[in-house]
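Issue: ligand-bound run for adenosine-5'-triphosphate - logging full I/O for the record.

Environment: standard queue, default settings, no custom constraints.

Inputs:
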Amino acid sequence: MPMDTNTTPSNFIRSIIEEDLASGKVKKVVTRFPPEPNGYLHIGHAKSICLNFGLAKDYNGTCHLRFDDTNPEKEDVEYIESIMEDVRWLGFDWGEHLYYASDYFPQLYDFAVELIKQGKAYVCELSAEQIREYRGTLTEPGKESPYRNRSVEENLELFERMKNGEFEEGSHVLRAKIDMAAPNVVMRDPVLYRIKKVPHHRTGDQWVIYPMYDFTHCLSDAIEGITHSICTLEFENNRPLYEWILEQVYPKPHPQQIEFARLNLSYTVMSKRKLLQLVEKGIVRGWDDPRMPTLAGLRRRGYTPEAIRDFCERIGVAKANSIVDYALLEHCLRDDLNQKAPRAMAVLRPLKVVIENYPEGQVEYLEAVNNPNDPKAGTRLVPFAREIFIERDDFMLDPPKKFYRLAPGREVRLRFAYFIKCTDVILDEAGNVVELRAVYDPETKGGSAPDGRKVKATLHWVAAEHSLPAEVRLYDHLFNKEDPNEGDLFENLNPNSLEVLSDARVELSLKDVQPGDKFQFERLGYFCADLDSTAERLVFNRTVPLKDTWAKLQKK
Ligand code: ATP
Ligand code: MG
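Outputs:
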């Protein structure tokens, strides 16, 4: 994958890695991306993927893909497959380094037994609620469990019986024996194993006890020889536990946990739990709904992996949480599509224009530029005829001062075609404009008048008969609050996040588009053929309008 490493901005994680390499503490950088397969990946995960795979690539190391699959109720193979697809789509490759935390269950069990033998873990019979009560608060120390001082033998026997399924869910847990008065609440005898009589998508009913995240994660990192274990800031408090567990049972050197600020984007949510609710309540059509911040949704919407990688690089890596403006993501996308996307003409809300002095039945093919930013893209021919469609918004019966487009008696340019002048307006009984009559000037072919007269607007258009019907889906933010997590999530939904236009027309050259093909529709924005698009029924998503609010903000 072509990625210019020379431009990668430095950040505090790079500094740590460079020091570790320079001092010889680390010989080869090994990172990992460790998703839990309980949902689809979102743009926040992309930040972590670009970071972990990017570091491995830049320092000639490796990056593992590891499924952190210790919560069987919430996990599913559908998610595993989608995650692999999305990571590959983003442009990264884990090679042979595909791992599952569940593959370590036998080893993790042995490490737990080892902890018990050292007198550093015990089987506790307090209920979940009691454990919470006993834990204390930030200002008060916790209280020791009455089961804390069981003998090693008793603990070994009880833990084995937990494993053998002899106890009910919730009746017993294995806890680390650390310090109930520790200022960091995470260190107050955290739970390491719990009973869950739930089959696992990989290990079946082999296990009825499952290790907790904190126990699993550090040991999985160590088993795989991860050198730098990069995670989001919420795990800062868990770092002492990460280190404590390794200290007790794993030979050195240990992986180093480093935290960075997670990505938050305005007008959307990033929690898989919340995204799942949107899917389950039918608020969106699925995980890949083009309004979703998931990689599957962004891909369907028309985002490119290049744009997302560029975005992840521009936002950088920091230690302070913030909300990134959605407009920056869109800006990166426009940057990319502006170079790549061929131009085409489409009319979203058609208004018919009959050019009365154009010969009936005649069709002529006019040359149109495919991409002004890419001379190699060449030109194509678009049919022009007596009846055409223009955009309804491009005509006004009674135009205000600053409206320069078509109006009665006014002349405008049709892109790649001729000047036309509106001679008549046909209204229905209610006074709505239903059709226009016009004349064209044959001398203006290609868009300029030999007598030097000017027009103030250029409109896009398609020939009426020689164009194709299409459905166009316009999207807006899913939420109408910058931070939708403020207040009730569902009250903050934008009721107008999807608008379907079923009578759009697109130029003939789009006859064979395939889902995923991207275009700039002249004057309208970037569009992408949707997965629902077929030869019989073309369907386009508006990926992003042309107006760049981010670029505008930067200029101010
Ligand atoms: P969510 O809150 O969406 O459920 P998660 O952290 O529980 O996310 P995981 O599957 O555990 O999801 O995440 C895999 C990796 O991606 C973790 O290393 C996590 O730190 C990282 N990650 C998740 N969300 C973000 C985000 N918004 N920004 C940056 N990294 C993220
Ligand atoms: Mg998680």
